[in-house]
Amino acid sequence: MKRKVLLTLLLCSFIFTASADEGMWLPSLISSRIKDMRSKGFRLTEKDIYDINRASLKDAVVLFGRGCTGELISPEGLLLTNHHCGYGAIQALSSLEHDYLTYGFWAQSRQGELPCEGLEVSFLVRMEDVTDRIATGQSEKEIIAAACKEGKGFYAQIENMYYGNQKFLFVYRRFTDVRLVGTPPSAIGKFGGDTDNWIWPRHTGDFSVFRIYAGADNEPADYSPQNKPYRPKRHFPISTKGVKEGDFTMIYGFPGNTQEYVISDAVDYIYNISDPMKIALRTKRLDIITKAQESDPKIRIQYAAKHASIANAWKKWQGEVLGIKRLGTLEKKLRYEQEFASWAASRPEYCHLLDSMKAAYNRNRGPYYIGELYAETVMTLELPKMAAMAAAGKSVVQLHKDFNLEVDRALAKAMLAEFVRLMPEGKLPEALEVKVAQFGSTDAYIDHIYNNSLCREAATAAQCDKSDPAAEFYAIVRKEYPSQYRVRNLSNLAEIQRWYRPYLKALMEWDGKRSFYPDANLTLRVAYGSVAGYEYADGEWHVPQTTIDGIIAKDNPEIYDYNVPQRLRDIYQSKDYGRHGVMIDGRKSVPVCFLATNHTTGGNSGSPIINGRGELIGINFDRTWRSTMSDVEFDPTICRNISVDIRYVLFVIDRIGGASYLFDEMTLK
């Protein structure tokens, strides 16, 4: 009990002393940060951020889909998130006849809003520290089961904080009737494409508009034409006054994954092994898909969401490698561990920790690499997966809508060849070696599969059984795909992770100057900072605001991602910005994006950026390329998150989408 009390005191003290602009804080514990937040310009209270007894800002934030954030902006369920977060839903609704990706979509009434099959959003109902309850014998299953019975649409999860030194229950309410209200053309919502992704200056209008629907009782309900717009407890008012350097900013969202406390062995694996391997493999996949998309408009639509999904992490990893090198993160970790080891040497409970952790990494690095190799090569192929589903009696007709046999064949040849080449000696599945030898080469084996599988066409897919060559291939690789290594990071393997619980406890006792906040794990967090530019390179200062002038400077009708709508060109030429035009550096323009110092990661996409009065000023959608290493080391001098300015969102809704009627239900200030 004394040790438990000591740990609680340590956690509280480190939460209080954490440095500015770094950290992803649990909303229920935000009271320890309010004094610092108020000194930087926040004007609300901790109860305004999180309260379970009355409406608070948490009630205006949703987990969008299974990995993004969204925010409510009206009392009638209107929701904003990123264009790239809604991209899969938009792509699923698109066709050559209705190409919403290229041309955008704007409902002109509630009746015109499009249902998004399979899309869901979840509100956090409450979070609770259940460490003591579990320590006294109550099981996690019991706690979760009881929470799920609290209301309609409820589900719950227990998540580890500080590698299990604390355990929190998160109770959510899920809504499954979500409809597309509006989305800009890709040349706005995805302006710059992969070229500009993770880059500053940025000119992307990365937003889309959805609406949540509920039953007549305002409770979650499956899709029905009789459903009504959901009436949220809280929605964000929108500031039209803009931002300037130094202004307070707060982000409220669901960051997905950080590894701030991992030891040098983990950084070495990321930097020298994992990221380089994954970058190279995804480069090959992207080259094949890009070439196919350029050859056929139908393939461009079919593979748009797939290409975006592959490319996002691909470019992020490149920036992560550069950032780790620039900061010398690996060397810093090694020095830190040497200092810790000196302190721990005289403490029996801690002196063995680093040796035990390093031994665990050595045992698991190779097998985890094999798991990642499977995940990035043979497990990405669509035809084998569809064949396995069909053989199990599941319909795959809908999957064929976004499938091209020859594109997948080319991907299969490239990925199987790389799988064989990169696999450590003696680790290839024996059955696969037999098949490759039987047909003489990996290419010939793939041709046999893709020429003879009944699942190659939707019309014959239902006849596919376990003997189908594609289903057989999937069974071979799936059987050998090491299930115990299918975790997000090497450090999350049970044999390694078990050592981080005492290690974090030891660090908290030893390092009184360090900021300790729980790693991101797709639970609701608060981060705060300010609008700020940064020094990109020696003598090269990047200002924190971009404008529509930069869009026109990049406009190129010959390049899909830079071919802006003619309507935007016409507005720019006439400078007819209406209520959205502002004076910037002595000229009339429209603001587009801005930088801030908030600590973010994947999952924060779509998160609301609010000012000190709790008003929406932007939508987070990215980090700068040199910031992507912040998942393992946050550097306040260069780490910046990128947001689309809410004033550009309003401009596009009004002047490009012709949907200014939506303003009638917003609270504009």
Helix-residue proportion: 25-40%
Number of strands: 22
Structural class, by secondary structure, is alpha+beta
CATH class of the domain at 2-120 and 176-245 and 517-533 and 562-665: Mainly Beta
Q: How large, in whole angstroms, is the Cα Rg? A: 25 Å
CATH topology of the domain at 2-120 and 176-245 and 517-533 and 562-665: Thrombin, subunit H
Mean pLDDT reading: 94
Q: State the helix count.
A: 23
What is the rounded distance between the termini? 52 Å
Assess the beta-strand content as a share of residues. Answer: 15-25%
- The CATH level-2 architecture of the domain at 2-120 and 176-245 and 517-533 and 562-665 is identified as Beta Barrel
Largest sheet: 11 strands, antiparallel
Q: Please mark out the parts with pLDDT under 50 across 5 or more consecutive residues, or reply none.
A: 1-19
Q: Indicate the overall shape.
A: globular
Describe the structure.
Strands 1, 2, 3, 4, 5, 6, 7, 8, 9, 10 and 11 form an eleven-stranded antiparallel beta sheet that branches. By secondary structure, the chain is α+β, with helices and mostly antiparallel strands.
